[in-house]
Amino acid sequence: MSAERRAPFHVLLSAVFFSTAGLFMGLIEAGVWAVVFWRSLFALVFTCALMLVMPNRGVTELDRAGLAAAMLSAAAMLAFIPALRLTSVANVAVIHGSLPLLTTLFARLTIKEPISLPTVGLCAMAGIGTAVIFSGSASSGVRIEGDGLALLMTTFMALMTIAFGRSQSSSLLLVALSNGFAGIAGAMLAPSLEVSVGQGAVLACFALVQMTLGLLFFAIGSRGLQPGEIALISLAEVPLSALWVWLAFSEVPATETIAGAGIILAAVLVHLAAPLKRSRNLED
Question: Where are the domains of the chain?
């Protein structure tokens, strides 16, 4: 199978790995920043081990796009973990579902990729869906903070998707740098880094499955696809995230989350059904 044909499967596999975050967070009792630190540290160790096994995967020099991708990925991690603690996994997953449209919008703003008028309308539709989710959290100040962090995380992920696609640096190098940045931030913010052996084992599995493998396959797959395509395939993470926590913890999404999910997913699926190259583009 050619690299071009493998790329979509790599991104889909990354979505499966990413979707396990809520499941792992439900098993972890440590503080948010301790989780960020230990998950990032374990992921850094695993990534460095992979770099020793596969030393020639990609350009080893760091380019500016790669540095930006690593920093944006770390910033997304710093928003993601607190979001999972402050709001429901379903809310985080559904807000993250707006990633395809945000990626398309930011690709237009940053690298001048064409964007059609219908896509602008779908972006607005996704925004309405997100607003519906926020309305369901308005009665709880903590929960609405979590929704806000989920939206911030999605914004960072959209920009990271574009940067990953433009970088020529090794995927493993970018994953290692991302975890290094996040680990340093977690160590600086955590009041205590102490965790039990059992919790450490769960955090190690969290780092290996959700972070290391997820981000690695995402970085590899993003090289062969356009930003919008990457984000659309990643949409598989949305239902899977809610499925795992429903099966493990019986967490049922709120009515507003289900309604917002319907609006966002409808917008994204319409975007997916449209041709990748549209004839009606906005003027530069």
Answer: 3-273
